[in-house]
Write a structure and sequence with these properties.
- It comes from Paraburkholderia megapolitana.
- This is Probable extracellular repeat, HAF family.
- Keywords: Signal.
- InterPro entries: HAF_rpt (IPR014262).
- The protein is mainly β.
- It has one domain: Methylamine Dehydrogenase, Chain H (7 Propeller).
- It has two helices and 28 strands.
- The strands form seven sheets. It has a four-stranded antiparallel sheet, with no helix packed on it. The protein has a four-stranded antiparallel sheet with strand order 2-3-4-5, with no helix packed on it. The chain has a four-stranded antiparallel sheet with strand order 6-7-8-9, with no helix packed on it.
Length: about 350
C-alpha cells in the first residue's frame, strides 16, 4: 500500500485500484471461469477505445468509470442498458474520469480544466459541473456521492498538501487529517453523512479513518500491520478497505462495531483489497491468486469466491456491488488489459 510520500499517485491512480489493476493484468493471458452462480458481461468501451473500467454500481444497474481513447485521452463513461455514454469534459479540457454514482444517476469524479490540473466534477443530466477546491489549491477529485448529493474526495490546499474534503451545496469543507498527519483523502460517504478514507499519522503511516459528526476516528490496522485505507461504507456503518498485516502483505478488511476483521485472500494468494459493500453485507474487491495475477472476488458468509474473468483474460477486479448482487468492475480480455464488466445472476 502506498503512503503519503507520493499523495497524488495514491489518490489519483491507486484508489479502488482501477488503474493499478490494469498494470497487474498485463501478463500471459489465461482463461478463467466466473463463479458458477454469476455470468460475466463485457460492457464495452467508447468508440475508438479498447480500454475501459467500471467503478461503483447503483440499484438501477448504472455504473460509471472511464475509457481511454486511441489518442490517449481518458473520458468519463456511464454504462446503462447496454450503452456506453460519454459524460463529457470541461471546456478546453481533454480528460475526465468517474468514480462514484448515486441512486439519482449523479456521478462524480474529475475533469481537467484548460490548465494541467484536474478539478472534482459532478456529471449530471449531460452537464459537467466544477465542484471546486480548497482555498489556494489547484487540484481536486471526488470519489463518492450519497443520495443527498453530498460528495467526498480530496483537494490540495495552499501548502500543496492533499486533504479529505466534503463537497456539498457549493461549499468545499476541509475534513483535516488524523493527529500529526499531513495528507488525507475521503473515498466514500453514506446517506447518514458518515465518511471514510485514509490519512497519514504522526509516525508517517497511513491509516483508515471514519469521519462522523465532525470527528475523525483512526480505525487502526490489522494485527501486526501499520497502514490501512478505507474505501467504502454502507448505511449500516460497515466499512471495507485494505490493511497491511504482520506478514507484510495487504489484506481486505471489514470494520464493524469497533473491530477490524481480516477477510483473507483467494486460494494461493497473498494480498487482497475490498472496494465495496452493499446493505446485505456482501463485499467485493480483488485478490491475488496462486499465479500472481489479480482476480475479482465476492465475500459473503465468511467465504471469498473467485469471480473469474472474461474469456482469454488473466486478471479482474470488482469495484462495486448493489443490493441486487450485481457486481461492476473490470477484466482483462484476450486483446486488452481492461474492459468494464458486469457480473450478474440474471435477476434483473
Amino acid at each position: 500500500m502506498q503512503t503519503a510520500c507520493k499523495p497524488m499517485i495514491h489518490v489519483h491512480y491507486v484508489h479502488r485500484t482501477l488503474t493499478a489493476f490494469i498494470l497487474l493484468t498485463i501478463a500471459a493471458f489465461q482463461p478463467a471461469a466466473a463463479h458458477q452462480n454469476y455470468t460475466i458481461k463485457d460492457l464495452g468501451t467508447l468508440p475508438g477505445s479498447d480500454l475501459s473500467t467500471a467503478g461503483p454500481i447503483n440499484e438501477r444497474g448504472q455504473t460509471v468509470g472511464y475509457s481511454i481513447l486511441a489518442n490517449g485521452e481518458q473520458h468519463a463513461t456511464l454504462y446503462e442498458h447496454g450503452k456506453v455514454i460519454d459524460l463529457g469534459l470541461f471546456d478546453g479540457g481533454t480528460s475526465a474520469g468517474a468514480y462514484g454514482i448515486n441512486e439519482r444517476g449523479q456521478a462524480v469524479g474529475y475533469a481537467f480544466i484548460a490548465t494541467e490540473y484536474p478539478h472534482a466534477a459532478l456529471f449530471d443530466k449531460g452537464a459537467v459541473t466544477d465542484l471546486g477546491l480548497l482555498p489556494g489549491g489547484d487540484n481536486s477529485t471526488a470519489y463518492g456521492i450519497n443520495n443527498r448529493g453530498a460528495a467526498v474526495g480530496y483537494s490540495f490546499d495552499s501548502t500543496r498538501a492533499s486533504h479529505a474534503v466534503l463537497f456539498e451545496k457549493g461549499v468545499v469543507t476541509n475534513l483535516g487529517t488524523l493527529p500529526g498527519g499531513f495528507y488525507s483523502s475521503a473515498n466514500s460517504i453514506n446517506d447518514r453523512g458518515q465518511i471514510v478514507g485514509w490519512s497519514t499519522t504522526s509516525d508517517n503511516n497511513q491509516h483508515a479513518f471514519l469521519f462522523d459528526k465532525g470527528v475523525m476516528t483512526n480505525l487502526g490496522a490489522l494485527p501486526g500491520g501499520n497502514s490501512s485505507a478505507a474505501y467504502a461504507i454502507n448505511n449500516r456503518g460497515q466499512v471495507v478497505g485494505s490493511s497491511s498485516t504482520a506478514g507484510g502483505n495487504d489484506h481486505a478488511f471489514l470494520y464493524e462495531k469497533g473491530v477490524m476483521i481480516d477477510l483473507g485472500t483467494l486460494p494461493g494468494g497473498n494480498s487482497s483489497t475490498a472496494h465495496s459493500i452493499n446493505e446485505r453485507g456482501q463485499i467485493v474487491g480483488s485478490s491475488s491468486i496462486a499465479s500472481g495475477n489479480s482476480h475479482a472476488f465476492l465475500y459473503e458468509r465468511g467465504v471469498m469466491t473467485d469471480l473469474g474473468t472474461l474469456p482469454g483474460g488473466d486478471g479482474s477486479n470488482a469495484s462495486g456491488i448493489n443490493d441486487l448482487g450485481e457486481i461492476s468492475g473490470s477484466s482483462a480480455t484476450a486483446y486488452s488489459p481492461s474492459h468494464a464488466v458486469l457480473w450478474s445472476t440474471e435477476r434483473r
